Amino acid sequence: MDFYVADTHALFWYLTASPRLGANAKNAFDEGAKGNAVIYIPAIVLAELFFLNEKINQPLDFNREFQRLEQSSQFEFVAFEAGDVKDFVRNSVVPEMHDRIIVGVARRLSANCLTCDTKIINSNLVKVVW
Asked: Which of 11, 13, 63, 116 lies most in the core, judged by the most C-beta atoms within 10 Å?
């Protein structure tokens, strides 16, 4: 079984079937759909997904997608915990707070990160799949 943490754009592009989703990231989501992988979704990614969707005129029915994600065995939500803040220093090479949370979750869960964010990729803190 493989384990992945999705960043916001990866999840959004998966949910909208966008060609912008990297081929390897799409394969990871497809693995999950077949029951061969788990895709972790940090709470901050859900929050960013909500605001991204709102910003671009709601191409997703957010409540419906949230329910689908919540009920799927392919996806697991990951809460942000107070102790995660202690990881910010270790992840300081990643400048953006939300991305530090995503990287911290991937490290904590020993999961690959589904992202095309160059700052996360260049940090070498986690293995990236795109």
From this structure: 11
- Encode pLDDT of 52-95 as tens digits: 999 999 999 999 999 999 999 999 999 999 989 999 999 999 99
Please tell me the pTM assigned to this model.
0.95
Give the Cα separation of 31 and 95 in Å (integer).
31
Structure tokens at 78: 């990951």
Each domain of the chain, given as residue ranges in start order, spans 2-129
- What's the sign of the alpha-carbon dihedral 80, 7, 122, 3? positive
Q: Do 59 and 24 touch, CB atoms closer than 8 A?
A: no
User: Helix count (H) and strand count (E) of the chain?
Assistant: 6, 5
Q: Which CATH architecture has domain 2-129?
A: 3-Layer(aba) Sandwich (3.40)
Cα–Cα distance between 71 and 56 in angstroms, integer? 26
